[in-house]
Design brief:
Structural class: alpha+beta
Strand content: 25-35%
Distance between the termini: 22 Å
Radius of gyration: 16 Å
Number of helices: 5
CATH superfamily: tt1808, chain A
Shape: globular
CATH class: Alpha Beta
CATH topology: tt1808, chain A
Strand order of the largest sheet: 4-7-9-10-11-12
Number of domains: 1
Order of helices and strands: EHEEHEEEEEEHHEEEEEH
Number of strands: 14
CATH architecture: Alpha-Beta Complex
Helix content: 10-25%
C-alpha cells in the first residue's frame, strides 16, 4: 500500500539521492514520490513463501531473488517501484546493491485496495522493462493467481490459476503448487 506525499516534483537523480537518506521507502512515478506503507501478515507470508521457493530453486544458478526492500528501475527516468518479489538472472544485475534494472520475473501480492493499481498503471510501467518476461499477481485475500507472460514486445498472455493448480513461470524454470504460495496463510475474516 502506498501513501502519496505532497512534495515538489523531483528529477529521477534527485529522488535516488533523496530516498537514500530516508528511513522509509518511497516509490517514484512521474516526478512524484509515494511512501510505502506496511502490508498485512497474509501479504508478507505469501511473498515469503514464493521468494523462499524461488531462492531454493535458483541457488547456484547466477540469479538474484529479492523481496520488497529492493526497488526496480523501469528506466533511468523512472518509475521506480518496490515489487514484492523479483528475480533477475541477468549478469548486469549480479553486483547490484540498491536496485534491479534487468528483472525477468516480477511478482506483486495484491490486497483489495492495491489490485487495480497492480493490474493497471503498475503493469503499464513494468511492461516497459525489455527483460521482463513474466508478471505474477497473487491475491492476498483469497486463493487466486494471475500470470502474464510476454509473447512479443507488445503482447502478453494471461493465465489464471486457482487452488490445486501449478504455477509455472518459465522465465525461472520453476513449478510449484498454488497451495505452496498460501501455506500457513490465514485470510482476514469478513464480518
Amino acid at each position: 500500500m502506498i501513501a502519496r506525499l505532497n512534495f515538489t516534483p523531483m528529477a529521477p537523480q534527485e529522488y535516488l539521492e533523496w530516498e537514500s537518506t530516508q528511513d522509509v521507502k518511497y516509490a517514484y512515478v512521474n516526478g512524484e514520490v509515494f511512501a510505502m506503507t506496511g502490508g498485512t501478515i497474509p501479504h508478507n507470508q505469501i511473498a515469503l513463501n514464493l521468494a523462499s521457493a524461488l531462492k531454493a530453486h535458483l541457488r547456484g544458478k547466477g540469479c538474484l531473488v529479492v523481496m520488497a526492500d529492493v526497488k526496480v528501475e523501469v528506466s533511468q527516468n523512472g518509475p521506480y517501484h518496490y515489487p514484492d518479489v523479483m528475480v533477475s538472472c541477468d549478469g548486469r544485475d549480479r553486483d547490484a546493491i540498491k536496485l534491479i534494472r534487468y528483472p525477468s520475473l516480477i511478482v506483486e501480492v495484491l490486497s483489495p485496495s492495491t489490485a487495480d493499481y497492480g493490474r493497471g498503471d503498475k503493469f503499464t510501467h513494468y511492461r516497459q522493462i525489455p527483460t521482463l518476461q513474466e508478471y505474477v499477481l497473487i491475491s492476498s485475500d483469497k486463493i487466486s493467481v494471475d500470470r502474464y507472460r510476454r509473447i512479443s514486445s507488445r503482447r502478453w498472455d494471461l493465465q489464471t490459476y486457482i487452488e490445486a493448480e501449478t504455477l509455472s513461470p518459465a522465465s525461472v524454470d520453476w513449478q510449484g503448487p498454488i497451495e505452496l504460495l498460501y501455506k500457513e496463510v490465514r485470510f482476514i475474516e469478513e464480518g
